[in-house]
Specification:
By secondary structure, this protein is an alpha+beta fold. Helix content is about 40%, strand content about 20%. The chain has 14 helices and 12 strands. The protein binds a DNA duplex (18 and 18 nucleotides) through α9, α11, β9 and β12.
DNA sequence: TCTGGGGTCCTAGGACCC
DNA sequence: TCTGGGGTCCTAGGACCC
């Protein structure tokens, strides 16, 4: 059996932990630059604030209903996530951390355990130790555990937020209840297509012909169908090194000058290089993209990207920023108002045991320099040492007007209790 | 005025190899 | 009239996830 454990309204719940005054109050968390709504408490959902809603469009709604609005505080969410995952790992030796707020647990050899009780115990312990509410779905396959989790979440009173699918009747009943667009692995495109064929529930989907599913939804769709039928096709996945790493941002204002983009792209390349070094990889290719604001129909649009195949594998901030600028020069056109840029690195090889080329003319002194920079920044704070091409006066900043304290990761933000 | 960021996997088709 | 068979690698685009 598999369990899918999911934190309820995770970011909103994190904001509430150290603010008991926000209990039962609507909360939303905004994306970078305070742009869109990316998390909502149940109370905010009840106000019909949709996922992805632009914050400026909902400013009045926020005000009218006294919605508590927060800028995303990823340091806090990441730390709370680690705490929750560490508790869950006490319930099974086989855990897959699926996302910041979700984990699959595999229960093999648990035949003599009452899994409902295990779920209830997890829920109680996570709530007590972290303050985060969770929902637990348990079933014979990963896809069915996702379904069970939805039921647990949808009917918290009846299920105590823990639901187990352990019989054929329960499986059929659950699939009959679940709308096709809510099935894990069915996105907007497939949902639309299936509905046109009068497939409205997960159960309808499992009634389709294997060959049809294979043809129109590839092996991925077929795997999903079997999983929903109770045939195990997906196992826990090992954590593996990333295959691509990206740093991309929207700007608070529109940029027209090459110099502005140059600073941003350099900083993004440096950030990618740092992430690469952290997972001990080098990249062999790099992509840079820039584009204007697609929402501004009054301005001319420009959107381009270019991928450079690098002459050698590297994770040096200096080399990667040079390549990134070379790419930027290829795609930058003056006369446009740029809103967003990004750097993506891919085609990795291990940092150790690199294959040097015969005619390669590389400055290997970069390696100790990067090690020194990482050590200094680790000790004295991010970006204490940076390239001259990065913003020196820290002019650039993200719009983050409602950032909560880093209660658990910054000693200055730890709460004080006066007795 | 204002609209996020970061990933994975699969397929078809072209280019190329022997 | 008639033009093989089997394979790999790469890329762009599509679809999905959180």
């Amino acid at each position: 059996m598999f369990a899918l454990v999911d934190c309820n309204n995770f970011y909103a719940s994190c904001e509430r932990i150290f603010r008991p005054d926000l209990e039962n109050k609507p909360i939303v968390v905004l994306s970078n630059n305070d742009g869109c709504v990316i998390a909502r408490s149940n109370e905010a959902k009840a106000l019909n604030i949709p996922m992805g809603a632009p914050a400026f469009e909902y400013a009045k709604v926020f005000e009218r209903h006294d919605v508590k609005v927060f800028s995303a505080n990823f340091a806090l969410y990441g730390d709370m996530s680690n705490r929750v995952m560490s508790i869950l790992s006490g319930y099974s030796p086989d855990v897959e951390i699926y996302s910041i707020d979700e984990a699959f647990l595999k229960f093999s050899g648990f035949t003599h355990f009452n899994l409902t009780e295990q779920g209830l115990s997890m829920r109680k312990q996570v709530a007590q130790w972290t303050g985060i509410p969770i929902s637990v779905g348990i079933a014979p396959t990963k896809a069915l555990s996702k379904v069970a989790n939805r039921i647990a979440k949808k009917f918290p009173e009846r299920t105590e937020s823990v639901y187990v699918i352990d019989s054929e009747e329960k499986r059929i009943k659950a699939l009959k209840w679940l709308a096709i667009e809510d099935v894990w692995g069915i996105g907007r495109r497939h949902a639309k297509r299936l509905k046109a064929l009068h497939i409205h529930t997960a159960l309808d989907f499992t009634g389709l012909d294997d060959a049809w599913v294979r043809k129109h939804m590839s092996v991925v769709g077929l795997r999903l169908k079997h999983e929903l039928q109770g045939l195990c096709r997906l196992d826990l996945e090992e954590v593996q090194a990333k295959k691509s790493i990206a740093t991309t941002r929207s700007f608070e204002t529109l940029y027209t000058e090459f110099a502005d983009l140059k600073e941003r792209v350099t900083t993004f390349a440096v950030s990618c290089a740092e992430k690469l070094r952290k997972q001990k990889s080098c990249c062999n290719a790099l992509t840079v993209f820039i584009h204007t604001n697609p929402f501004r129909s009054d301005l001319p649009q420009h959107s381009r990207s270019v991928t450079l195949k690098l002459p050698f594998a590297t994770n040096s901030s200096i080399e990667l920023s040079q390549f990134a600028l070379q790419a930027l020069r290829q795609i930058f056109k003056s006369g446009y108002h740029y809103k967003k840029a990004g750097v993506i690195v891919h085609d990795f090889s291990p940092h150790e045991n690199q294959q040097l080329k015969l005619f390669e003319n590389r400055d290997l002194r970069h390696i100790p320099v990067m090690e020194a920079i990482d050590a200094i920044n680790q000790r004295f704070g991010q970006q204490k040492v940076r390239l001259a091409a990065q913003d020196q006066k820290r002019i650039w900043k993200m719009k983050q007007q409602r950032l909560s304290p880093c209660y658990t990761t910054n000693i200055r933000d730890v709460i004080t209790i006066n007795v």
